[in-house]
Amino acid sequence: MPPTITAFESSPDRGKGQARDMRVRWALEEVGQPYDVRLVSFKAMKESAHRTLHPFGQIPTYEDGDLTLFESGAIVLHIADRHAGLLPEDANARARAIAWMFAALSTLEPPIVELGMAMLFERDKSWYAERLPVLKDRVRVRLGELSRRLGDADWLDGAFSAGDLMMVTVLRRLNASGLLDEYPGIATYVARGEARPAFRRAFDAQLAVFIAGSKGS
User: Fold this and answer.
1) Residue 39's pLDDT is what?
2) pLDDT of residue 174
3) Contact by Cβ (8 Å): 75, 69
4) How far is residue 109's CA from residue 77's CA, in Å, rounded to a whole number?
5) Beta bridge partner(s), residue 144
6) What is the per-residue pLDDT across 187-212, written as a single tens digit (0 to 9) for each?
7) What is the pLDDT of residue 211?
8) Phi first, then psi: what are they for 7, rounded to 5°?
9) Backbone phi, then psi, for 33, in 5-degree steps?
10) Mean pLDDT of the chain
11) Which runs of consecutive H residues, i.e. helices, occur in 122-196?
12) What is the three-class DSSP state of 67?
């Protein structure tokens, strides 16, 4: 039986491929692992049946036999560890790829998510005009550091790895902000990730859910 992941029944990103199940879909596509998807409503996510899979009532989750996982980073790491193609064979290179996964989630994603949430939910607040430049500058600091490290390389550390997969999905959350345009090397890096066939398959699968839901509403 193929593993089963959960995804939004009605994704708040409206088909932009930014929901966190995208990371898991992409990883599974990269390693050639078939998978099933169980769509979950916002109401069902908070009910006890789903909370047994994800104690914080979110998506994605991953079920494979007697193994259940939550947190997209942990799921992608498990997939990369179990299947060839997302982690180098060399032990040191493997450790560095995992470090980049953690960097994407722990260093880049927090200020990016904070900016995105402000742009979505705080536009009508009195402090928004003053707060927005501060949030953007926090992101710029990280983008500048990443840009200097990436340089002219195609990927973060040699060949494409789970570190790049995670980093690209995090950086894509900036698409609506315009900040990527200030860092052409990073914008090209993200576009390179989006051009991978496995990414396109994962994106199309997630988009199909949004399209089907739009037709049904």
Assistant:
1) 96
2) 96
3) yes
4) 17
5) none
6) 999 999 999 999 999 999 999 988 88
7) 87
8) -145, 165
9) -100, 115
10) 95
11) 128-150, 162-171, 184-194
12) strand
Sheet of 61-64, strands arranged across: 36-40, 4-8, 61-64, 67-70
State the DSSP code for 83: S
Nearest to 149, CA basis, from 98, 192, 183, 111: 183
- Residues in the chain, total: 217
Task: Give dist(CA 101, CA 107) in Å, integer.
Answer: 10
What is the pLDDT, as a whole number, of residue 43?
Answer: 96
Average pLDDT over residues 143-156: 97
Q: What is the pLDDT of residue 216?
A: 61
Show the tokens assigned to 157: 């550390």
Q: Which two tokens stand for residue 154?
A: 């195609």
Is 160's pLDDT higher than 70? yes
Give the three-state DSSP class for 43.
helix
For residues 62 and 24, the answer to whether their CB atoms sit within 8 Å is yes
Contacts of 130 (CB under 8 A, 6+ apart): none
Is 75 within 8 Å of 63 (Cβ atoms)? no
The C-alpha atoms of residue 77 and residue 89 are separated, in whole angstroms, by 14
Report which secondary-structure segment, H or E, holds 26: helix 21-31
Over residues 117-132, the pLDDT tens digits come to 999 899 888 988 999 9
- The domains of the chain, with CATH numbers, are 4-85+198-216 (3.40.30.10), 91-196 (1.20.1050.10)
Residue listed under structure tokens 């996964």 = 101
